[in-house]
Records
---
Amino acid sequence: MKRNIVQVFTLVWLLLLSVTVLAQGEAFTPVRNAIRGGSSRELSQHFGSTVELSFDGDKQSYSATQAEFVMKDFFAKNAPAGFDFVHYGGSNEGTPYAVGKYVSKTGAYRMFVKMKSDRGTLVIDTIDFTKE
């Protein structure tokens, strides 16, 4: 009897975990599409009021409008040739994040995107590009 309860609990836990990971992946779908298209305008639709952008360790915090222009400049200099998220996760507090690989003609970058909840909506809090 005890063994059955443990098995049922484990199964339910795994199902909930898989649903959480799928939901996190879905939250990043429009972000992925905007990055693939090199569209700073589409990407900015998912920015919080402030966004931390980091390029090879040089971090700065920007307003959503400023961050849009910074990303527009980045995409102009490093037009996307390929992009996809390779890992989705969440912190213990439930903050979703994704790690991806951004490829341009000038090189490849590991990309980290962290979201946060703002009035019940997930918005981009941090984007970090690290040249590989």
Note: The first strand starts at residue 47 and ends at 55.
---
Amino acid sequence: MLDLHQIFSMQKKALFFLFALCALGWGFTPYQSIFLGIGLGAFFGTYNFWILVRRMDKFDSSISEGKRVVSLGSALRFGSGVAAVAIAITLPQYFHLVSTVIGLMIPYVFLVIGAIVYSVKNK
């Protein structure tokens, strides 16, 4: 199985393509707020996944050293999700709220798709 750092690096590559698609959609379609919302949500979703990767490293090192187990940062990730939604609510002329929430879930969708592709390749 791939480790979390490899998954995160693959996700970063996929998300750069998503950001490019959002930029093109923002520039060439009348749905600018939807594409900005998806981009904002994907940015905060990627930040949340980065926090998870970093905290999992600390968790693994704490377990291997026999130290007290630290938190996995759920409150920080929840807070950044709330921040993304707060930005979308505060600036509705720029960011579409529903697309921002969908964008928050995109890194996790990429995670599931990556796991499926990996399992199909190695069967």
Note: The chain has four helices and no strands.
---
Amino acid sequence: MTPKLVAGIEPPYYTAVFTSIRPDAPEGYAETASRMRRSVEEIPGYLGHESARTPGGIGITVAYFRDLESLDAWRLHTAHQEAKAYGREHWYDSYSVHIGRVERSYGHERA
């Protein structure tokens, strides 16, 4: 599968940047992550996300939302709150979340 970046979103929009440190492949993580991907895609105003993880356990996920209301809908989503609580207890050594408003966006794709 060729990776694809989220592109072509007209600003302004919002990002939730989740950075974390966790062991590689903890039990139950992949299933929960897949379930969360399906759930967030149902949130009106969700625009997409990109993720990367190093072999050493540092991960970054950037999720894009049209407005703060859609981002808050995801933050308050019951299954998401349950997954976050479980992750704090069982998976993540540490994490941080950064919320930002995007004023300008551009990119490049080789033809």
Note: The chain has a mean pLDDT of 93.
---
Amino acid sequence: MAEVTAEARIEAPAEKVWATLTDFSLYGEWSTTHTGFPKGAPTSLEKGGTFEENMKLMGFPAEVTWTVEELETGSTLAIRGKGPMGVNVGTRYSLVPDGAATTVRIDGEFTGAAVSLMAGKLKDSATAALNESLRKLNALAV
């Protein structure tokens, strides 16, 4: 298993950050691992809903089928996905209002046999991607 976390303070209210985070037409502008939605971007989010995403991490392309596991509008989005080679991925976005700003935390988890072979490099690459994604999300949300 490889676990990664990134956190940033975004100088925008939680409602605006949430709107940007869940506007899938903007997803490619801030998510550095995102390369496309093969069946179209999700039009709405609901617990149990699914969508497919094409991603690239460590230079490897992957198609992940995501399921929304937890959804608290304005504060939490947790998704779990199945990728190639038996890799399972979990991502949790948490927003905490902080005055006129918002603290955004992204927790990621990778499991599966293939992960154990490259856990260290995967952690480094995924952490860098999350931090860059938060930087780009900040630029879009403010």
Note: The two ends are 35 Å apart (CA to CA).
